[in-house]
């Protein structure tokens, strides 16, 4: 996800890197890391002065510019600060913009934003839904036969997604097509090749039961405390995962308004493919600006946007690509989609590479092509493979260090969700400056 402070220090900050290149505080995806530093003592004063200057400038801009961009943060963000939530729980609470009878819900728009944006859109408070709102949502929810790769964008705010459905949808985004059948069989408890509404809800109960004890300890009273400042005895587990009292948009889409329809595998597969395609289209369109292709540099930015790299490392990859492809031919959506579908088989690819190169040797483009074909049954375009090599080939010898490639692509695949949360904001910047001070003394 997009960096704020790290990019600002680099963007303002060619000057900052000249003074303290070996000791800068950089952040990618809302995380601060420390580069390896030169031990020279004279950098102490310069680095400290620059750190304080840019820290003051960052704080000033965030209290003025960012305040204009994001008028108010929801109060629950502060109340959840000390709670032991995992990243998915925090993200769901952060992006969920609707509430019905004390339970938090995402809208389809919220879900799309949660996997493509670093911050939710500005809002003063959550929207409280009533029965008439849900009735209207049900009427406007398309049936399975009318599903499309634009469904979430079409429904927009006229729908609700529960927390357990949020986890389910996240898992879909990283599923290879070979895993669609396994996912379907998880729901098909009686093995009749059809999933009914009750079978679908079984996994939600499993999610809720398995996590209840931890959530009861960690989330108690967070919603009410955030809104009123008072203690709440009812745990937030209820707000996230209590049994449905209404049908969500997903349930109506799968099983109809009366809940009597069955879900077949081909319909389930089509839904998963459509969701994957929709998210990729949104990412692609962000960079294509209405054109049929994105630049190779934009492709690199998409691959690296969810990774935890220092800003200098991030720039190094982009500069390397610019040097090696000064005039690119562009990358189409189909090429981009094929590569992202390959990333969903990354675990199989890693196994294939370990078996193919027992000595952990770098691989050639030909070997890369072969491994992709084995894992996916499909071929990537020669141009997109060549672009990947030009991004990740360290010394330009035509060989790829697949371990580094896989590590970075795992971040891309999971969109940062696999990482533990790290310090953010002004507190993180101060901690980074303190570390720099200690290290150069």
Describe the model.
The chain is built from 23 helices and 9 strands. The strands form 4 sheets. A 3-stranded mixed β-sheet has the order 4-3-5. Strands 1-2 form a two-stranded antiparallel ribbon. A hairpin with a 2-residue loop joins strand 3 and strand 4. 59% of the residues lie in helices and 5% in strands. Helix 15 (265-288) crosses helix 18, helix 17 packs across helix 21 (382-392) and helix 19 packs across helix 20 (365-376). The chain has 441 residues and is mainly alpha-helical. The longest helix has 27 residues, at 43-69. 31% of the residues are buried.
Produce a short descriptive summary.
By secondary structure, the protein is mainly alpha-helical. The protein has helices at residues 5-12, 14-20, 43-69, 76-79, 87-95, 108-116, 131-140, 151-155, 163-173, 180-187, 197-218, 222-228, 237-241, 249-255, 265-288, 296-304, 311-324, 333-343, 346-356, 365-376, 382-392, 402-414, 425-440, and strands at residues 25-27, 32-34, 98-100, 103-105, 127-128, 194-195, 263-264, 293-294, 331-332.
């Amino acid at each position: 996800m997009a960096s704020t402070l790290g990019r600002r220090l680099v963007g303002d900050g060619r000057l900052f890197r000249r003074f303290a290149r070996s000791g800068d505080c950089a952040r990618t995806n809302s995380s601060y890391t420390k580069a390896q530093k030169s031990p020279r003592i004279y950098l102490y004063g310069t680095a400290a002065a620059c750190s304080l200057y840019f820290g003051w400038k960052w704080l000033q801009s965030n209290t003025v510019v960012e305040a204009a961009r994001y008028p108010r943060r929801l109060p629950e963000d502060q109340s959840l600060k000390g709670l032991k939530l995992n990243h998915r729980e925090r993200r769901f609470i952060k992006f969920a913009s609707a509430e019905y009878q004390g339970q938090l819900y995402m809208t389809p728009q919220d879900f799309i934003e949660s996997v493509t944006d670093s911050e939710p859109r500005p809002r003063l408070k959550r929207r409280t839904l009533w029965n008439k709102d849900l009735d209207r949502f049900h009427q406007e929810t398309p049936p399975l036969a009318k599903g499309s790769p634009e469904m979430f964008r079409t429904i927009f705010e006229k729908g609700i997604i529960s927390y357990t459905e949020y986890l389910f949808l996240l898992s879909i985004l990283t599923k290879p097509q070979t895993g669609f059948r396994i996912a379907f069989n998880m729901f098909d408890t009686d093995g009749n090749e059809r999933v009914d509404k009750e079978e679908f809800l079984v996994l939600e109960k499993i999610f809720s039961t398995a996590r209840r004890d931890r959530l009861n300890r960690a989330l108690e009273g967070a919603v009410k405390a955030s809104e009123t400042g008072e203690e709440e005895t009812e745990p937030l587990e209820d707000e996230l995962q209590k049994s449905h009292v209404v049908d969500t948009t997903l349930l109506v889409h799968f099983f109809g308004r009366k809940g009597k329809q069955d879900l077949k595998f081909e319909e389930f597969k089509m839904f998963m493919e459509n969701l994957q395609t929709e998210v990729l289209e949104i990412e692609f369109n962000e960079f294509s600006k209405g054109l049929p292709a994105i630049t190779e540099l934009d492709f690199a930015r998409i691959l690296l946007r969810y990774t935890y790299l220092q800003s200098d490392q991030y720039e190094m990859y982009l500069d390397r690509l610019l040097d090696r492809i000064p005039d690119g031919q562009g990358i189409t959506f189909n090429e981009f989609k094929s590569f992202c579908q390959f990333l969903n088989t990354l675990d199989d690819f890693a196994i294939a590479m370990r078996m193919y190169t027992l000595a952990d040797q770098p691989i050639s483009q030909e070997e890369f092509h072969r491994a992709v074909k084995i894992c996916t049954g499909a071929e990537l375009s020669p141009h997109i493979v060549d672009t990947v090599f030009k991004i990740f080939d360290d010394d330009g010898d035509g060989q790829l260090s697949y371990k580094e490639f896989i590590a970075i692509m795992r971040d891309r695949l999971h969109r940062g969700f696999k990482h533990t949360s790290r310090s953010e904001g002004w507190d993180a910047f101060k901690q980074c400056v303190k570390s720099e001070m200690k290290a150069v003394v």
